Each structure stands twice: as C-alpha cells, then as structure tokens.
Amino acid sequence: MTQAETTPLRRRDLLSLIGAAAGSSALYFAMSRLGHAQGSDYAGPINLSGDPKGASVLILGAGVAGMVAALELRRAGYRVQVLEYNDRVGGRTWTIRGGDRFTELGGATQDCGFDRGLYFNPGPWRIPYHHRALLDYCKRLGVTLEPFTQVNANAYLHGKDAFGGQPQRYRTIQADFNGMVSELLAKAVNTDRLNALVSKEDTEVLLEALQDWGALDDSYAYKAGEDASERRGWRKPPGGGLSAEPIDSTPLRPQDLLQSHLWRRLSSGLDYDYQTTLFQPVGGMDKIAEGFAREVGDLVRLNARVTAIRQDEHGVQVTWEDKGSQTMQQSRADWCLCTIPLSVLSQIEMNVGAPMAAAVAAVPYSPSVKIGLQFKRRFWETDEAIYGGISYTDLPITMIGYPATGYFDSGKGVLLGTYAFGPYAYEFESLSPAERIAKAVAFGAQIHPQYPAEFDNGMAVAWHRVPSQLGCYGQWTDATRAEHYRNLCAIDGRILLAGEHASYIPAWQEGAILSSLDAITRLHERVMKS
Amino acid sequence: MTQAETTPLRRRDLLSLIGAAAGSSALYFAMSRLGHAQGSDYAGPINLSGDPKGASVLILGAGVAGMVAALELRRAGYRVQVLEYNDRVGGRTWTIRGGDRFTELGGATQDCGFDRGLYFNPGPWRIPYHHRALLDYCKRLGVTLEPFTQVNANAYLHGKDAFGGQPQRYRTIQADFNGMVSELLAKAVNTDRLNALVSKEDTEVLLEALQDWGALDDSYAYKAGEDASERRGWRKPPGGGLSAEPIDSTPLRPQDLLQSHLWRRLSSGLDYDYQTTLFQPVGGMDKIAEGFAREVGDLVRLNARVTAIRQDEHGVQVTWEDKGSQTMQQSRADWCLCTIPLSVLSQIEMNVGAPMAAAVAAVPYSPSVKIGLQFKRRFWETDEAIYGGISYTDLPITMIGYPATGYFDSGKGVLLGTYAFGPYAYEFESLSPAERIAKAVAFGAQIHPQYPAEFDNGMAVAWHRVPSQLGCYGQWTDATRAEHYRNLCAIDGRILLAGEHASYIPAWQEGAILSSLDAITRLHERVMKS
Fold first, then answer.
1. Nearest chain A Cα distance for residue B12, angstroms
2. Residues sharing a CB contact under 8 Å with residue A2, sequence separation 6 or more, in sequence order
3. What value does the mean pLDDT take over residues B149-170?
4. Which positions in chain A touch B388 (Cβ < 8 Å)?
5. Using CB atoms within 10 A as the burial measure, which of A200, A301, A349, B400 is most buried?
6. Does domain A170-252 bear CATH number 1.20.1440.240?
7. A10 to chain B nearest CA, in Å?
8. Comparing C-alpha atoms, which of B87, B116, B110, B26 is closest to residue B413?
9. SS3 of residue B227 by DSSP
10. For testing the chain A interface, which of B242, B288, B374, B439 should be mutated: the one with the most A CBs within 10 Å?
11. Hey, what's the signal peptide range on this chain (chains A, B) (predicted)?
C-alpha cells in the first residue's frame, strides 16, 4: 500500500467493499432470531387504545405495580387516584440513607446514621439484564443505571466447619471444582467406562473440552502447576523484572473440597436471574420510585391506611384512615386495582368471591432480614481486593454484599451485612434492631476480622416487621399456584389485583410491573366492552 | 419488644452486644491471611530512600513503564528526562477519538470520524482487580474507573459451521455444557464406575454437588424443564398476571454441543486475568496516560526518534531525531532506562554486552489487529439485550466487544469489531484500513445482521504497522524466557530495560509497571552503592 487514504470511511464507501469481502447472503442473515425470548414477555410500552370515557380507577399501593398502573391508566384517559400506606412511594423499592427514620412493628425505631452519599437497599438491590419492562421504565423515567456485580471471583466462600473456618476465595473453589469434575470425567472416559453414554466419535472432543475447561494437564490431571494457577491464582503471582517468576499454588484435595460444601455457592451466578450483566440505579433503588413520583406523584395520597374495600355493581368504595389526622375517609371509583401485599390484604375487609378470597389467604410471605452496616473504611477493597459481588457463608447472615459503586473511594462504605432467610430470618427478627446489628457484626468478623475495629453503625430491616408489607414476598408453592394463581389474577367484579405476588417472577420488581401491565390491559378490555 | 429504641447504634453501644452474640475469639480471627497474594507482588508505593546526589536518568519511551519511572525517580531526587517517539504520551495505553489522525507504516492515514464522547482503545482495554500496582497509580493519579464486563451470559458464541451458523447465547452453551458434564459424571458415579477415584464417602457429596451445579433432576438427568431453563433461559419466560406461565426451553443435544466446539470459549472468563471484577478508566484507557502527564509531562520530549544509545564508563549518550525540525539531537545522562519495545530497540544501535543484545533480538512481537466500529444505534442493547461483554466467533474477527459504558444511551455506539491474532491478524494487516473495516463489518454481520444497515464508520489499528511499536507485545516462549529473560532485565553497565517485555505479565500494563519499579529499585541500589 503506497497511497495515503482519505478517511473517515463512511457507509457509502463501505457497501461495495463488503460485497467483495463476503457473500451478500451473509449480510442478510435471518433477522428472525432477533427479538427471541430475552427474559420477560415485555414487548415495549403498553398501548391502551380507545377512550375509557372518564372511567375512574382507584389504585391501592404506590409500589412499582401501583405506580406503573397510575402512569399508564392516566395516559390512557382514566381518572386515577392512588392510596399509599407509607409516607413515601415505592413500597419495597426502598432505600435507607442517613437521617431516615424507620419504625417497625413492635415500636422499635431506628434513625439511620449513614454518612452522606451512602445508602442501603433493604428491598430489591439488583436488576437482571432480561427484566426488560423494568429497564424500559428506568429509561423512560430517566433513572440512570450502573453495573451490579453478583459473582466476584475474589470474594469469599465460607463455611464455619470448612477449612478450619478459613474463608476461601471463590476463584479457588470454582477452579478446583471444575478441575476435579473434569479430571474425574476424563479418567472415566479414558478408561472406556462411559462408552454407553458417549460415542467414540464424541469422546475425543469431550476430552479436549474437559482439558480446556478444567485446566487439566496432558495426562488429564488437575494439579499444582501453571494451568491450575492461571485459574485459581498463584502462590506468588507473576511480576516484572528480576525475581518476577511466579510460584504455583496447590489445589485443594478433592475430598476436602467436597466435604467443605463450599461448592454450593458456585451455582449462584449460573442462575438466569443472576447472570451477567446486572444493574442497579445510581444512588439507590428508590431512584425508580422517585422517577415514578415525578410522573404520577400528584395522584398519590400518602399515609392512607386502607381498612375496607367494598364493591357493588356500580363501583368500588374504599375506606381508609388518614394517618396524619387519624380520621376515616372514603374514596370511590368505577374500578379498583389493589396492589397491597397479600399478607396485609388478607387482614382487610374485601367483598370478593370465594375463589379470590381463598387465593388471597393462601400465600404465605417469605421472611427475610437485611442489615446494612457502615464501616469507617472500605477495607474489603483496600485490604482484600474485593470490588463488589458477594461473599457467602453458612452462618445465619448468609452473605456479605459489597457495594457495587464508589469503588476505590477513600471514605466510608456500607455493606449488606446480612441477608437472612427462613429460620435464620426468624432468629434475627426476634431480636431488637441493635441486637440484630451486633449479631451481624459478630458473625461477619469470622469472614472479615476488620469488622469490630472498623464498624461504624447499621440499620436492620426485618420484613415481617415492616408494617406495610408483613413479609418479603409471596412464597408460592407449586400446589398453591396450581390451585389459586388464576383466581388471584382474574377480575372479580370491579376489583383486580396486581403485584409481584400476582406473577411468575415473585420477589422481583419485574414481576410486579408485568403483573400490573397484564391487569390493566384486561381491565381496559373490560372497560372498552362495557 | 415494647420500648422504642434510641438509635443510631454507634460502635460504643455495640461492643458489649458483640460479646453476647459470639465468642470473643471470633472477633480476633487471625489477621495473618490478609494481604495474601492478590495477583501482583505490588506492596504499595515504592520508597527509594537515600539521596542520589543529582544523578541523572534518561528514560526512553513515555508509555506507562517510562512514566512510572519518571514519576518515581524525580520524586527520589533524580534529574530525569524522557524521550518519546510519538506526539503523545502513553504508548500502547492509547485511545482513539473523533478528530484523531493516525498514520501507519506504509503511509495509510485514518482520520477518526467517531461522534463526540465515543472512543476505542486499540491497546489495553481492561484492568483486572489483581493488577494492584496499576490500580494504585490510577488512584494516585486521579483516574476514575468503572467496571468492565468480560463475560456476558447473553452475548453470543458463534461458529461458522456450528448450528448452521446461528449464534448461540453464552448462557445456553454454559448451562448445557455444565449439564452434560455433570450428567455424564453422575451416571458414571452412580454405576460404581468411579470407585477407584472417589471414595464411597465422597460419592454421595459429589452427586449432590453435580446435581446442584449442573441443574440435574432427581434422576441425575439434564433435560428440558424448569431446572435447566433457570440456567439456559426459557422458551417463553415467566411473566405477570394471567398468561404468565413460562414454557421450558430444550437443551442442545450433547453430541451437537461437543461438535460445535462453542465450549471453547467457556473458559474465557475462568482465567485469572479475566475474572470478575475488571475495570476500565471512565472515558478511555488514555486517561491513565493523561494522569501521568499531569505529574511528569514536563519531563517528556515528544516527537523524539531515538537512533543510537551509546554508553561509556561515565554515562549514556542518546542520539535522536527531532521529528518536527528533522534535526539530530543528543541527550546525555548518568543512566539510561530504556522502555522502547524490543521490536523497535532491536533496530537501534546500542552498545550493550552480548547477553542483553541477544535477549533484545530473541523476542518476536505478537501480531494483532483491533478495529473499532461506530454504529448509528446501540442495537446490541436495544434489540438483543447485550450490555457489555464479548461475543466470540471462529471467524477471523475473533470477537465482538461491546462497550462497557454508556449503557442504555440512545445515541451511537462504538464496538470492538475485530481483535484478530496470529494468522488472522496478518490477513487483516495485509489489507488497507478501509478494506480491514469492510471485512470486519462483513464478518460481524454473520453475528449481528444489523451491521450493514447501522454501520457508520471505523478505525483499524494493525499493531505491526504502528511505527512506535512494530507489534503488539513481546511473545516469549518458555525456551526464550529460560535463555534470555534474566539477561534482558539485568543492568548492563549504565543501561537497563523495562516494559511489559521485561515481565512475566506480558501485554499488560501491570507487567510494564512492575518491570519499571523493579528496574528503578535496582538502579537506585546501584546508585546508592556508587
């Protein structure tokens, strides 16, 4: 090539060159595979066409399900009012910051002492890439997102009886598990023991695959050496100049690895909901609630405790207490979309048919306790090179979640110090907030010895004690779902329900949104017909 | 609990509670494991104590190795000058933006037509969490970092002969590979075929582990169903309200999976260098170069082409051409730290001993071609839900790298459209830049059919044609390293070398920095002794 070219190369210059470089058929590769299932059925903004002629809808609950409905129904021409128990919108889409006060059932009040700019999401804290409806609302509402790290190869896996209580790096457990599994299988294949399962033609390819994936050597062994160290890390890592030669690390013994049970957490990043790339709103999950509030905050009546929902053939009348003035009020509309958690709704008078009533009563709510801990420095980053992600333990705290923002900041940081489920959640819940926090610090110190010296303050949210929720999310079983789910979602006269509990994506905001969109679509069809 | 508590809970309140919640021994868990090998030997900022009494050092090359040395040597009291071939600092730490012009060997000139705010890193593009020295310099230099996504479960794996050329999502290949491997091994274990390898005591645990990790059902089969779908994705994903029930997807047949060879890329995220969490500078990799320039830019003479390096017993004299005035110049110092790539240095006159000369001549440089493509919209996000990460293919482009920044932006975006190695790199290199770009678009269209319609413009960097580099990085073999590495790094009279080529972390900025720190430490010891 001797002549200087004139560039930039623009598309008009390119089309002829492409023809030369590849067959034109390559350029028109079937578009049909685009738009394949990407995690939710969401196909873009809902379109409720047709004039509802002034029909009114009373929405109960200003969580994401209620706010989505308020936004879309008003846009479609409905008259909309929203009643919300709390003094804020968002429901479980909630962020706690310094200066916030929270009083739980039983009366314990916590005032948050986090430093400015730090926060803790006691509810949802991550958004999978395939939660397309939620991502679309974030975009439409101007909510800025940043990546959330789920799996961190340098975070810890900890078992109180595993390796003398010494936490192991996720990467070493992952590498050694892959190595063990691939070596065992390669040796089984090698000895013709798997011929009944794998054809001879595929055996060679399988061996090649196992060697690559499991970091096996040429004799199909996983052992101390460069191959294993490039996966699990080095005893002395490679450096520069003289004295730079690395020293290999030695894998764990397979029986020790198996009996440690630390492999249990290797699947944590394999589940569809936790696969890369996940996101979180910059500044806290309640930025989503704030986004909705900018659009439809004017429709919401805060501090409104619903006590009765009564329908007749003309509409729905809701009785509620204004928590400020402690006076009883009534609101009426043609229709009612109720997004109140079933744990609360089951205690509210509502005249629906037996099928919906039975469904409302059938779903227990998951217990869970989340504790945010502020530390005086981000020691997990500076001392231990853990940037985001999660360490797992079999202690009652279950996990330690590292902040996926503010990396490398010199100041303080807030960890998720406990995310307890099931019996462990009840164990925490039975304690005072201060005792819960102390317990989280004490257990966490087994993983991060810096805990006691660096602890600053904390906030503990036990979901069964959150007055507006009485639990974390609707815990369906296959049996209850088979019996009750359709009855829960079907329109009962002039009342219909929405929320994560009315979805196949329980506990997630996406479930709440899709449930809401499905409900208002069916409501709108009903209104258009009438 | 009946009394409201006074909070926030402060550390002083906590210490007694911790004692109650856990044995005090738990609080003082051995600190010894902290500071364990975290990827590089870097132990924090270098300390060159002692007065060098005005000793001078001439540094050749203003890449990260040279800039680190300039910064640290000046701080230690040395008189420092840096000569740099290019009209910018940073070397391979380089970012191309709209308005930039690049002329390669052979004379082809490209003017970059990227839109404002968009860029392409033709050199390093990611920073592993364990590159502690580089991360520390980023912090010290005020370079802001953001997460870089390597593995994206929703990106594609593509083989031109696999599945009729239809790209597969990474998550389906990963889930099906894990399922296949675990099912084969579980069945081998079940039939007592592996008793020679695994004790009966461990077999039960192994089966439990395989079931969990491989998403096997109770008969240890990996097959269409909820378990597999929660890993590989659904045919119809779960939704909300009525019609929300998901439909399972069906795994690939093991023989099809094996013969597709798409499993080859599953190890891409398992390697230590590519494990989570990785980072990139906000705004482009050259923010690191800019950071160094703020500190020591005043020491750098740009546009200086070194033609000869001659030492005697008193010092080193370097002859160089001022590319602006096309005049020859000379600079002299007590010592010379040369960071010029060996591919270029081997063509420069330098009077060192036979061992170093042989080492300089012994290391070939890796070919590689990187192509940045600007598209009119971020269709990989909007159409295909791919946010960051990499799709891999066996086509010559090797991969498509998605930007790990600007997620959800409505405007244009720049992809890494080619990262070709080896023979494929030579194939691209032999073409004009426009032809390379056309080829990248034509091949990429086999993975993203939107390419031809959405292509806007591109920039192609063939590293063997970059005048200051003549290749991508020093490609050591075990044999050349055994013979030459120590001779390359040892001080020869008054000359010593640094750069990624003088490290065990070739091609990475961390190798260049650690090499430089090691070199100037040894130089300083020498100076202090004399």
1. 9
2. B106, B107
3. 97
4. 147, 276-277
5. B400
6. yes
7. 5
8. B116
9. helix
10. B242
11. none
For residue B5, pLDDT over 50 is answered with no
What's the Cα-to-Cα distance from A310 to each of A268, A302, A317, A336, B315, rounded to whole Å? 45, 21, 5, 10, 96
Please give the pLDDT value at position A5. Answer: 38
pLDDT digits (tens, 9 = 90+) for A84-100: 999 999 999 999 999 99
Per-residue pLDDT, A43: 84
Here the tokens at position B314 are: 């008193």
Chain A residues with beta carbon closer than 8 angstroms to that of B186: none
Token digits of residue B504: 């065990």
Contact A412, A446 (CB under 8 A): no
Domain A96-154+277-284+366-465 coded CATH 3.40.50.720: no
Note the pLDDT of residue A205: 93
Which CATH number is B56-90+289-363+474-529 given?
A: 3.50.50.60
Chain B residue closest to A31 (CA)? B449
Q: Is the ipTM of this complex over 0.85?
A: yes
pLDDT above 80: residue B123: yes
SS3 B238: coil
Q: Determine contact, residues B210/B186, Cβ cutoff 8 Å.
A: yes
* Low-confidence residues in chain A, pLDDT < 50: 1-12, 14-15, 19-20, 22-38
The 3-class secondary structure across B277-335, one letter per residue, is CEEEECCCCHHHHHHHHHHHHHHEECCEEEEEEEECCCCEEEEEEECCCCEEEEEEECE
Q: Tell me the per-residue pLDDT of B27-41, one tens digit each, with 9 for 90 and over.
A: 333 333 333 334 567
Output the CA angle B218-B224-B225, nearest 5 degrees.
60
* B268 confidence band (pLDDT: 50, 70, 90): confident
Rounded to an integer, the average pLDDT of B132-138 is 97
Give chain A positions within 8 Å (CB) of B385: 38-39, 129-130, 132
Q: Å from A357 to nearest chain B CA? A: 17
Question: What b-and-e string marks burial along B382-403, b requiring 16 or more CB atoms within 10 Å of the CB?
Answer: ebbbbbbbbbbbbbbbbbbbbb
Closest partner residue to B29 among A29, A174, A449, by Cβ?
A: A449
- Edge to edge, the sheet with strand A278-281 lists A127-128, A278-281, A145-148
Domain B170-255 falls in which CATH fold?
de novo design (two linked rop proteins) (1.20.1440)
Domain layout of chain B by residue ranges: 56-90+289-363+474-529, 96-154+277-284+366-465, 170-255
Pairing of strands A316-322, A327-333: antiparallel
Percentage of residues in chain B having pLDDT higher than 70: 91
Domain B56-90+289-363+474-529 and domain B170-255 have a common topology: no
Cβ distance B1 to A107 less than 8 Å, yes or no, reads yes
Closest Cβ opposite residue B241 in set A34, A185, A514: A514
Interchain proximity B241–A103, CB inside 8 Å: no
Q: How far is A237 from chain B (nearest CA, A)?
A: 5
- Counting one residue from A and one from B, how many pairs have CB atoms under 8 Å apart? 525
Residue B187 has pLDDT above 80, yes or no: yes
Looking at residue A17, what is its pLDDT?
A: 55
Asked if A449 and B197 come within 8 Å (Cβ–Cβ), the reply is: no
What three-state secondary structure class fits A478? helix
The minimum CA-CA distance between A347 and chain B, rounded to whole Å, is 22
CB A507 within 8 A of CB A341: no
Mark yes or no for CB contact B7/A255 under 8 Å.
no
Cβ–Cβ gap B111/A35 under 8 Å: no
Q: What architecture is domain A56-90+288-363+476-529?
A: 3-Layer(bba) Sandwich (3.50)
Residues of A in contact with B276 (CB under 8 A): 149, 151-154, 388-389
Q: What is the pLDDT of residue A101?
A: 97
Contacts of B273 in chain A (CB under 8 A): 230
CA distance A354 to chain B (A): 19
